[in-house]
Design goal:
96 residues, mainly alpha, 5 helices
């Protein structure tokens, strides 16, 4: 896949997720209640994908591509809280 195709694929996957977050990008605990392990995994990794994280697993590369770009997965404090919250739900539901 070429560079432009990779960027286009990343935009196609990430933009709807970012737009769906609302103005503050906050997701509350009740939004995670009832989500499957697959949905929680996707939500968590979509946050990193929007920040240009260079995924190491084949599964994540298949879904989000190799689109590494600055800030290379560096999260804001709010994004880190969301990731931590999702990880807690993954543990609670036995995903991890």
């Amino acid at each position: 896949m070429g560079y432009r195709s990779t960027i286009a694929a990343t935009i196609f996957v990430v933009v709807p997720m970012v737009v769906g977050m609302g103005s503050l990008g906050e997701v509350y605990a009740q939004d995670y209640d009832g989500m499957s392990c697959e949905q929680l995994w996707y939500e968590r990794n979509a946050i990193y994908a929007a920040k240009g994280y260079c995924f190491k697993t084949q599964r994540a590369r298949n879904v989000f591509g190799r689109g590494c770009f600055p800030p290379y997965g560096k999260l804001t404090p709010g994004e880190q809280r969301r990731v931590s919250n999702i990880e807690q739900w993954e543990v609670y539901q036995g995903c991890k």
